[in-house]
Specification:
The protein has 107 residues and is mainly beta. Helix content is 0%, strand content 28%.
C-alpha cells in the first residue's frame, strides 16, 4: 500500500503512476518497490464460499447440533468461512446430509 504524502489517503495504481483517491495527487510508481506489490484479478479456490448446487460438502466436518429447515434431519456437513471483518465471528455454511438443502448460520 502506498499513502499520499500530501493528505495521507490511500493511493491506487493508474498506469505508471500512483494516484491519490482523495486529493488526486500523482507520483511515479516506485520501480524498486513495484516487485513487492501483487495484483490479482480472481480469487483462489480456498476463498470461494461453497454455495453453488454442485459444491462438494461431502467429507467436510459433520454437525449433529443442527436441524434442517427443509426435512428436519439433524445432521449436516459444514464449512466455516470468515465473511465479515476479522473481529466478527465466522459464518458456518451447512448442507443437509439427508436432502441436500443448504443454509448458513451467523454467530
Amino acid at each position: 500500500m502506498q499513502f499520499c504524502d500530501d493528505c495521507g489517503s490511500l493511493m491506487h495504481a493508474d498506469g505508471d503512476e500512483m494516484v491519490c483517491s482523495s486529493c488526486g495527487a500523482r507520483v511515479p510508481k516506485d520501480q524498486e518497490r513495484a516487485a513487492d506489490f501483487v495484483s490479482t484479478d480472481e480469487q483462489t479456490g480456498d476463498e470461494v464460499i461453497e454455495t453453488e448446487e454442485g459444491a462438494d460438502f461431502e467429507g467436510k466436518p459433520t454437525a449433529d447440533d443442527v436441524t434442517c429447515e427443509e426435512c428436519g434431519h439433524g445432521e449436516a456437513w459444514y464449512t466455516i468461512k470468515q465473511t465479515a471483518s476479522a473481529d466478527e465471528p465466522p459464518t458456518r455454511f451447512f448442507k443437509c446430509k439427508e436432502c441436500g438443502y443448504r443454509w448458513r448460520e451467523y454467530n
